């Protein structure tokens, strides 16, 4: 099989009859045509995870998680999500003929909820869930007990909750190592840190299986309003604290709890890691230039890696001649509300007749 199952020999055993695939993985690695030259970067690449079946890298997680649920003969999928995890799990659960129930982060964009609902999942948005640490912890403890009692597969895109499902995400690192082994820097967005930790583990596994391979420096990029990992990583701190509340507006990265943060710190030297913090407005700007300079339509969270690269350049932490990869993690329709910052109905020229058109078209 193609997709993530190309690397089945490096992942937990899932019998072929239980492997669910919707065509996830094998996403393009696109060399920058315009942003790279604008910023003086000779070798800037974008890993287009926004082109996965449901529009985000979470399809890799869902493929492994739902396949493992079948392998373990679970009754159904129980999950939490701010959008992308839920959409992926809903789609793959449908393909596997498994019921799927999802507890939604308070305030998640309706476009993401709608996608989950279209696939047939049962959705429950809980006030303050995913926003405050107290509520989030309380709900998570309840769900853990419920899943155990009812024989459900609790799937949350973090290694601390779903270590087997998250191994599907490690295949991003495998693909990058195969296609661009000379990569020196890889920028990865983070909320709870699951994706970043998957990249750490993935590159580590690849290195153990391929003598002489040198992993890139991994940059964890977070919005300043959700700094649970980046500063601690840069300060080499071993004491970490959750946030009382996320102050970022970037959907998908509003994770005040630590989740995989400690695991990231514990593995911070293998491969080398660093952190970058970005303003929300810089993220929205990068979303816009990805669309207008590269033709890449992503959600705000999908532009965070590029914003982190911009900050690293400003700080003088990047050799501009070396190969750099930014992960584009989710597609534009995931967060339609954010597009109002880029283009609205008022931006469209309304023309009354041919005469006005001829006068306006070359202005």
Shape: globular
Helix fraction bin: 25-40%
* CATH architecture verdict of the largest domain: 3-Layer(aba) Sandwich
Largest sheet: 6 strands, mixed
> How many beta-strand elements?
10
The sequence of SSEs as H and E is EHEHEHEHEHEHHEHEHHEHHEH
Tally of domains = 2
Report the end-to-end length measured between terminal Cα atoms. Answer: 53 Å
Mean model confidence by pLDDT = 95
- Percent in strands: 5-15%
CATH topology of the largest domain: Rossmann fold
- The strand order across the widest sheet is 1-2-10-7-8-9
CATH class of the largest domain: Alpha Beta
Low-confidence region ranges: none
Structural class, from helix and strand content? Answer: alpha/beta
Question: What would you say about this model in short?
Answer:
The protein is built from 13 helices and 10 strands. It has helices at 35-38, 58-71, 84-96, 110-118, 133-150, 163-166, 171-179, 194-209, 230-234, 261-266, 280-294, 304-314, 354-360; strands at 29-31, 44-48, 77-81, 100-104, 122-125, 153-155, 185-189, 217-223, 273-278, 324-328.
